[in-house]
Amino acid sequence: MSVSDHLVIFDTTLRDGEQSPGASMTKAEKLRIAKTLEKMKVDVIEAGFAIASQGDFESVKAIAESIKDSRICSLARALDKDIDRAAEALKNANASRIHTFIATSPIHMQYKLQMQPDDVVEQAVKAVKRARNYTDDVEFSCEDAGRSELDFLCRIIEAAIDAGATTINIPDTVGYAIPRQFGILINDLIKNIPNADKAIFSVHCHNDLGLAVGNSLEAVLNGARQIECTINGLGERAGNASLEEVVMAVKTRQDLFNVNTQLDTTQIVPASRLVSTITGFPVQPNKAIVGANAFAHESGIHQDGILKKRETYEIMLAQDVGWHNNSLVLGKHSGRNAFKTRLQDLGITFDTETELNEAFTRFKDLADKKHEIFDEDLQALVSESRSQADEEHYRLVCMQVTSETGVTPEAVVTLMVDGNEVKATAKGSGPVDATYKAIESVVNSGAALQLYSVNSITSGTDSQGEVTVRLEKDTRIVNGMGADTDIVIASAKAYISALNLMTSDSNRQHPQGDV
Ligand SMILES: CC(=O)SCCNC(=O)CCNC(=O)[C@H](O)C(C)(C)COP(=O)(O)OP(=O)(O)OC[C@H]1O[C@@H](n2cnc3c(N)ncnc32)[C@H](O)[C@@H]1OP(=O)(O)O
Ligand SMILES: CC(C)C(=O)C(=O)O
Ligand SMILES: [Mg+2]
Asked: How far is the CA of 125 from the centre of ligand 3 (A)?
């Protein structure tokens, strides 16, 4: 594959993705996502914005120190202090990139930066040169390029390349572009900038008009060779271009794009589930590639076609993106080896024997309650335990809920609070409400419940319910997760897991909140 055939996949789930309100992640969670991205063979992982907070700095540093096969990047404004901080966080990386940016649109320069265009060019050049003192891989972004003037873009990009930028990123920061126009912009830039061949052109599209993927693909057709994207399309406001859609579009329509990514696409579904569990942002069932219905066929004519020839209604293989056959895989009589092997197939490994044994015990408990254990059950089982806080102040010991027609539901919940058993009773408008009130009567967290969502993990009335709870207190937002065949118990587990995170995790901050 020649250089120009390679499409660089730059994942920014941990930076722009984290800018989604409520999607903040701990260092440990970011590291888990980074490892999955590395396994997927993502070229560049934007691990954070090192100067944003101590937590962001530590996360970028930890990822830079443990990821070996992907290049690790930190964002930095065009300021000396940002670039120095990014370099400090990245100093032990196997391969690093500093990504510096400054806005280039008239509205941003005049009102936000309050700078003259000449000064913006000068500051960009200074920043790129400073970054080049630390690494030979420097990306320069023209923030709000989608609303910038072509002549000014050409001028600043030429100067940035002369200063040493190796990747030039064209962000459609506010999701304003339309595919045809965005493609023309990329084409014009590459054609008109004399030193354009010295850098890789990249795009970073937002989804405010639902066009992030379309714009990114049009850019590839016009010469862009890096796409910035996120798992599940997470990102500021309506999100970024989704990695899974971009990657599968160029793979499925290779005939049009003539580019290759080096991604192991079978890691897409596990990565999507991991990001969804960690952030508490459920994936909509009809989401392309990773939604539960993406490969499901419901209507008779389609089913008939599929049975006769799969390609009549399927343009991709579900297995190619990491979906596994939903047949029975394990049950109550299965042993540790089968359990471990099946999880390995799903991309889940354990760091220690103890971790494996704990997961196996939970699997056996579940198998006692549920007849058929599907891959989704296994993924939820592991995700639930991995979403727990390092320190467990609260633990659910047992609970009893009465729910009867015409009677106000009541919950009796026994919690272990820092080693002491405490029992509480409360009534509520429903069993979940009563349970949360009982827990709160013990904990008094003062946190506001921002989101409560239940997903059925598989079909069938014996399916596990996966509950996500988002709590907010002051500037801190946490997401707890719980799964159980009883959704009220799953709800209690999710609430308690969020409370544990709220009390024990000092790294978890909303990106804007910890400056
Ligand atoms: C399009 C994007 O996604 S850009 C990335 C957005 N992400 C984030 O902002 C998340 C992390 N941000 C933060 O933690 C904080 O905003 C920080 C630490 C970066 C800065 O915090 P503060 O110093 O308090 O500044 P604040 O956020 O209020 O304002 C931003 C300042 O940076 C300036 N600025 C913005 N972009 C740039 C840039 N690319 N280069 C140089 N200066 C810039 C603004 O003009 C403003 O300057 P001013 O204070 O002189 O008016
Ligand atoms: C920092 C830049 C690349 C960004 O996120 C944007 O412009 O949307
Ligand atoms: Mg962005």
From this structure: 21
The beta-carbon contacts of 345-349 under 8 Å, at least 24 apart in sequence, are 346/270, 346/375, 346/378, 346/379, 347/36, 347/39, 347/266, 347/267, 347/270, 347/322, 348/270, 348/378, 348/379, 348/382
Ligand 1 atom with the smallest distance to the CA of 53 is 14
Tell me the pairing of strands 476-484 and 200-205: unpaired
Collect residues with CB below 5 Å from ion ligand 3. 16
Cα(83) to centroid(ligand 1), Å: 13
- Locate the ligand 1 atom nearest the alpha carbon of residue 127 and give its number: 40
Mutate to test the pocket of ligand 2, among 148, 172, 173 (most ligand atoms within 8 A of CB): 173
What is the share, in percent, of the chain residues with pLDDT greater than 90? 67
Q: What are the structural domains, with CATH classification, of the chain?
A: 3-279 (3.20.20.70), 394-504 (3.30.160.270)
Ligand 1 center from residue 318 Cα (angstroms): 42
* The pLDDT of residue 182 is above 80: yes
pLDDT at 513 over 80: no
- pLDDT tens digits for range 213-235: 999 999 999 999 999 999 999 99
Q: What is the pTM of this model?
A: 0.82
